[in-house]
Design a protein that fits this description.
mainly beta; single chain; eight-stranded antiparallel barrel; Lipocalin
Length: 203
């Protein structure tokens, strides 16, 4: 859960500046969102097929030197304890139970409090009008396990503001997390979760 995930992952303003100076863009938490969608495969899936989760506390930065985009670096960190169930239309009792399971059984956030990402490169740069599309590669650490991931990103830079959006799917088991199941098959969360992000960063 990355994916978290995964917000400043999108902050790559490597196409936006001129000159030879190094530039740093920092995430604006108040205007950025990272969402995680978990999918229900159990009997409850007929009533509630998805569960909405948000990452509430995260940050990071991108540093690059224009004209040498290959050496751009992205660093991202999130507080695992800040992942919250934000599903509408459920009782506070249900929300509390989901939250306890997420934090204690799945993320084990007391033992693994940080989610981090460090970039290793970019590829497949695609101009699209005022926007730029590309694939960002890097090492994502969740639940104490590090895996190499590749994430599609669409980015627009205007003045000192950068806006990046995208989505990706990861498997919980890739990070040694056990997808939750219980209630004799009533609840069964799918291994794959979807990460979506809209990130605003300022230089």
């Amino acid at each position: 859960m990355k994916y978290a995930l995964i917000a400043t992952i999108c902050l790559l303003p490597v196409f936006a500046s001129e000159g030879a100076r190094s530039d740093v863009y920092t995430i604006d938490l108040s205007k950025s969102t990272i969402g995680v969608t978990a999918f229900e495969d159990g009997m409850m899936g007929k009533v509630r097929p998805t569960h909405a989760i948000e990452v509430k506390r995260f940050g990071g930065r991108v540093k690059f030197t224009s004209g040498n985009e290959a050496r751009a670096t992205v660093e991202f960190q999130a507080d695992a304890k800040s992942l919250e169930n934000v599903e509408k239309g459920i009782s506070e009792f249900e929300r509390g139970g989901f939250q306890a399971t997420l934090q204690n059984a799945v993320l084990e956030s007391e033992k693994f409090p940080q989610i981090t990402f460090r970039s290793t490169g970019i590829s497949d740069i695609r101009p699209a009008g005022d926007a730029r599309g590309f694939t960002l590669h890097g090492d994502l650490t969740v639940h104490g396990v590090t895996r190499r991931v590749s994430l599609p990103v669409v980015m627009i830079v205007s003045g000192d503001q950068l806006r990046a959006t995208g989505e990706a799917t990861i498997k919980q088991t890739d990070f040694d997390m056990k997808p939750y199941s219980g209630g004799l098959g009533l609840i069964k969360i799918r291994d794959e979760v979807k990460i979506t992000f809209t990130v605003i960063a300022r230089g």
